[in-house]
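Much of what follows relies on a compact textual record of a protein's fold. Think of the row as the fold of the chain written in a discrete alphabet. An example makes this concrete, so a full record is given next.


***
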Amino acid sequence: MNMYIRDPAQNPDATCPRCEKEAKDDRHWIICKANVTMLDEIIRQAVYECLSVIERKKTRQMGDKQVQKYIEKYKAIYMSSESKLKIGIITGKLYNPLGAINDQRHNIELYHNIISKLYTQIWILSHQVRRRENGKEGIQIP
């Protein structure tokens, strides 16, 4: 949708070229069903990577249920259709699963890790797809 709004002549269609079902906007590219890696897995990877560093310091341990609860809260805050909050904005509504509330360093590291993974595992791949002339299938651009 953003590219369509910016330059409709070059981007005549706002439909996602991968799923071809919804308008491609700031929210859709992250939750598109055609993504190779889903948002839940990206958040889970980021949490466990941050936890592995913290656990070496013996400051915090976290179970699978807590990780899943964090994933659901993250999606509710950033991915719900009612939410207008952009992913890069850190909010107090999303509790810090990696340490004390006043220890925001770990929370910032986690946010950075999630955003980095979104970029490498979804954003880059989502922009390597181009519609074929007939509009039926996407092709990978080398």
